[in-house]
Every structure is written in C-alpha cells, then in structure tokens.
Structure prediction request, 210 residues.
Amino acid sequence: MANKKKVIVTGFEPFGEHAVNSSWVAVRELERLGLDEAVDLYVCEVPVEYQAVQSLLPSLWEQHLPQLVVHVGVSGLATTVTLEQCGHNKGYKRPDNCRFCPASQCCMEDGPDCISSLLDMDTVCERVNDSNVGVAVSVSKDAGRYLCDYTYYSSLFLGHGRCAFIHVPPLGKPYSSQQLGRALQAVVREMLTLLEVANTEEEEQCKHSH
Prediction:
C-alpha cells in the first residue's frame, strides 16, 4: 500500500476556560474511528503557543508530506461544527498560554492578508448535512484571530491551500465526543473526495496542455 493517502489532523491543548479542549477529544475519537483503509491518519496535539506553532507546522508538512492537513479547534461561541474557509494574517493581539504575543501582531510580515483553502467549504458543508450524520455543520470566514486562525493561516501558506480548519463547540454544548468524532470523520472524508476530484481535473488539464 505505498500509495496510501497521508492525512494529518490536529487538536489543541487546554487553554483559558477550556480545561478540557473538545478539539483534541474529538480528534482522539476520530483516531479511534479511523478514516478508511487507504488513508494513513496521523494525529497530534498542538500547544496554544504562537512560537510552538511556528516550529511545529513546517516539520509536520515536510516530514509527512500529507495530502491534507486538518486543524481542529474549540470555539466557546460555536453551537455547530464550523468549517473555516480562510485564515488571516493580521490582528493577533491576544497573549497565548505562555503570555506571549507576536510583536508584529501578524503571522508573516509580508504575507497576503487572507489565504483561502483550496477546498470549497460550502460544498463540504452541504454534503455532510445531507448525509444525516446527526451533527449540524456550518461555514465561517472568520477563524477568530487567535491560535486557531494563526495556525490555519500558517498551514495554508505551507501547504499551498491543501488545508482545512474546523471549529467544534465545547463538549456537551450540544454534542458528545462520539458525535464530534463522527462529524469529523464525515467532514474529512468529504474533503478527501473533493481533493481527489481536483487532482483528477489537474491531471486532465496537464494531459491536454502537452
């Protein structure tokens, strides 16, 4: 199985009022469920620290050469599983778990203001909601200007858009860890299907252009 697809899914460690971070709980549940035989799933817990994210992300992309990286974070405001379409470069004023904040308040000094995922989150959302997974999914264009948004932007840049960010509500508000795990499984499967289609179309275009 040399052609297994590599997918990385990350969750975050506890921070602030989130003594248990539902994002990591949901990712562990996804790991237990798995994606499918043809997918090599690698999960990891990300520190809620700007500098740790800066050193961790390049190594994840370079070592594993994943087809797709999906970051999962918790949002105290979310009541649905929320797919973020884009990451933002500026506006990082909130100190992290080490009480550190980037002096420039941005991810990359000369980077674009916003980077969008290659994946059309509206399509993913529609398909998952149609599949009766039992969890409501929605789409957002503002990942919140904290570690979630910071991680997403950095990863979108490193992975040329082959990246996604999913916000999950805190546990029990309203979903259990099992429900969140199942929702992540459904969402990531749809994302892989969309990427597959995009890759096939690219190959077709290459053939025609030669």
